[in-house]
């Protein structure tokens, strides 16, 4: 088996899933869903043309929301640089920007928490010379740290709303139930972190024959890598000197996104309690996991609208405010993301042509050996 060049990873690894046909299909689905949610549905429930209020939005608050969006992506890129492009693979800030912004464009192709962006990021890191194991470990850590504040926020603000410490509707189904589910997710993550790194070898000992031992060892590597990634995430939380930038980046991303939503409500002259903004934001974002909506388009919009209506925010304000939020937080970064996508493809091509564009201190992967019987 030939070794892979440490400078550009696997030269046969192609960029997956991205075709013109898929892009056209995605655009059509997105347009149909958005027309249904923001134009047809308001009329069906008696709100008339709810989007006519868009012209009433305060330009100053829109500018503030755009500023929060800039902060959101700056912190997101800092998180990625600290966790993925730091000690193992020394990416430059320009490379980090291109990978992350290209991931924004790729996310349009799939839902399920941005699977398209994950696929593109994996491809880019392998091309940059990162080993398969390191890519898996650091991507697990990146995603775990990025989404760790999701259940933490649901627990914290759910309790604060339910106990009346912070203003807002405190019904059980909007506070304690989400907090309980979030707590179970954190407990599950902690249990997964206990998976031993040699799980594949332990499983292989109980298999008969070299072929089945090799299969068992390969299967066991997946949960073992996830467990290792979660332990690395915990170490970042516990060591400010090591993971300070990563933790600040993850917290800053969500705080800035909530800031966009907060400013979007203020653009229409309505003050929603902070705890309600946070809780409604994260409850609505759960819809991002809906598998049939590209990048959660439509599902997240509907989820957020439903959450804030349940919290008692007037429907006539919710529709335009959520649309403003989605336009700024989701759609606005897509044009620079598309530009970054083509920049990244050109950069990867240069990596392959030049062979060793940057000394990344990455060691070639060892030859794979069959498991011993």
Plain-language structure description:
By secondary structure, the chain is mostly helical. The protein is 67% helix and 0% strand. It has a domain at 20-149 and 244-354. The chain contains 13 helices and no strands. Helix 5 packs across helix 8 (210-238) and helix 5 packs across helix 10. The longest helix has 31 residues, at 132-162. The protein starts with 19 loop residues before the first helix and ends in a 19-residue tail after the last helix. The model is unreliable at 1-7 and 364-373 (pLDDT under 50).
How would the blueprint of this fold be written?
Elements lengths: L19 H25 L14 H25 L9 H15 L7 H14 L3 H31 L13 H17 L6 H6 L5 H29 L1 H27 L7 H12 L13 H12 L4 H17 L2 H21 L19
- Straight-line distance between termini: 21 Å
* CA radius of gyration: 23 Å
The 3D shape can be described as globular
Mean pLDDT: 80
Briefly, what is this?
With 373 residues, this protein is mainly α. The protein is built from 13 helices and no strands. The protein has a domain of 241 residues.
Quickly list its features:
globular; mainly alpha; 373 residues; disordered C terminus; 13 helices; disordered N terminus
């Amino acid at each position: 088996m030939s070794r892979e060049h440490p400078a550009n990873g696997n030269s046969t690894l192609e960029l997956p899933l991205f075709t013109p046909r898929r892009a056209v299909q995605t655009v059509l689905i997105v347009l149909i869903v958005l027309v249904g949610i923001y134009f047809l549905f308001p009329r069906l429930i008696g709100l008339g043309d709810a989007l006519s209020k868009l012209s009433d939005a305060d330009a100053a608050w829109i500018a503030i929301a755009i500023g929060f969006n800039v902060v959101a992506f700056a912190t997101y890129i800092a998180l990625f640089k600290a966790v993925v492009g730091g000690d193992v693979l020394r990416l430059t800030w320009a490379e980090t920007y291109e990978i992350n912004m290209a991931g924004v464009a790729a996310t349009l192709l799939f839902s399920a928490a941005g699977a398209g962006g994950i696929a593109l990021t994996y491809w880019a890191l392998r091309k940059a010379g990162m080993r398969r194991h390191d890519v898996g470990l650091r991507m697990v850590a990146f995603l775990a740290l990025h989404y760790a504040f999701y259940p933490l926020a649901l627990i914290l603000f759910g309790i604060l709303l339910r106990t009346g410490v912070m203003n807002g509707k405190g019904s059980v189904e909007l506070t304690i139930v989400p907090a309980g589910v979030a707590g179970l997710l954190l407990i599950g993550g902690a249990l997964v972190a206990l998976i031993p790194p040699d799980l594949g070898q332990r499983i292989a000992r109980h298999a008969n024959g070299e072929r089945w031992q090799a299969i068992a060892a390969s299967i066991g590597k997946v949960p073992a890598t996830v467990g290792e990634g979660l332990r690395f995430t915990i170490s970042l939380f516990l060591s400010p000197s090591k993971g300070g930038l990563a933790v600040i980046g993850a917290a800053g991303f969500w705080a800035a996104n909530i800031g966009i939503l907060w400013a979007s409500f203020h653009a229409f002259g309505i003050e929603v309690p902070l705890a309600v903004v946070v809780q409604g934001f994260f409850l609505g974002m759960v819809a991002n996991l809906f598998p049939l909506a590209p990048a959660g388009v439509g599902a997240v919009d509907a989820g957020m609208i439903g959450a804030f209506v349940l919290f008692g925010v007037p429907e006539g304000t919710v529709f335009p405010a959520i649309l403003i939020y989605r336009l700024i937080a989701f759609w606005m970064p897509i044009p620079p993301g598309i530009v970054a996508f083509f920049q990244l493809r050109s950069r990867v091509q240069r990596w392959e042509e030049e062979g060793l564009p940057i000394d990344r201190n990455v060691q070639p992967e060892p030859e794979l050996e069959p498991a011993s019987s």
